[in-house]
Amino acid sequence: MMEKFDSFSEKDTFDFAASLAKNVKPGTVITLNGNLGCGKTVFTKGFGKGLGIEEVINSPTFTILKTYEGGRLTLNHFDVYRIEDLSEMDEIGYEDCFFGDGVSLVEWAENIEELIPKNAIHVTIEKNPEKGFDYRAISVEGDLS
Q1: Is 2-141 a domain of CATH 3.30.70.2190?
Q2: 35, 68, 110, 114: which is deepest, by most CB within 10 A?
Q3: Backbone phi, then psi, for 11, in 5-degree steps?
Q4: How does pLDDT run across 76-109, given as a tens digit for each residue?
Q5: Is the pLDDT at 139 greater than 80, yes or no?
Q6: Beta carbons of 77 and 57 less than 8 angstroms apart
Q7: Which contacts (CB < 8 Å, 24+ apart) does range 96-99 have?
Q8: Concatenated DSSP letters for the chain?
Q9: Which of 124, 128, 120, 141 is nearest to 1 (CA)?
Q10: Strand 136-141 and strand 121-127: pairing?
Q11: How large is the angle between the packed helices 10-21 and 40-51, nearest 10 degrees?
């Protein structure tokens, strides 16, 4: 299944992600693909809100993984931009997250492609300056239901 969404503001991206989170099931892995500054963290903040998480969500760039609880499901937010060896993922216990009762969002998933489950959902966020500075084309590939 492929769903496309046109976002014209951070609020659009936030709200779209929040709506996706409402029906997500435990054990779901979602890859977030897009260039630096395209809105992956805004998407994650909205997704967390849709799960009912009240805690402030920010990018785990230097810690690789941040876990947020208190919502309908636990949110595991990965930023694997700095991963140089797959063994680093073992060290942080990625399997417990990917195959546990929460949901995992993975930024820069192409760096750990071999570890991403086959049934993962793939979200791509792309800028298009011709449509405006804040415009983002968001595509969701996979089954969230």
Answers
A1: no
A2: 68
A3: -60, -40
A4: 999 998 898 999 999 999 999 999 999 999 999 9
A5: yes
A6: yes
A7: 97/65, 97/67, 98/27, 98/29, 99/27
A8: -EEEEEE-SHHHHHHHHHHHHTTPPTT-EEEEE--TTSSHHHHHHHHHHHHT--SPP---TTTSEEEE-SSSS-EEEEE-TT--STHHHHHTTHHHHHTSSSEEEEETGGGGGGGS-TT-EEEEEEE-GGG-TT-EEEEEES---
A9: 141
A10: antiparallel
A11: 40
CB 98 within 8 A of CB 114: no
> 62, 112, 66, 120: which is closest to 89 by C-alpha?
112
Mean predicted lDDT score pLDDT of the chain: 93
CA distances from 64 to 82, 84, 100, 136 (A): 8, 12, 18, 25
Sequence-ordered list of residues with C-beta below 8 angstroms from that of 65, at least 6 positions apart, any chain: 76, 77, 78, 92, 94, 97
Supply 27's token pair. 């054990």
Q: Return the amino acid letter for 83.
A: I
Tokens at 76, concatenated = 């595991």
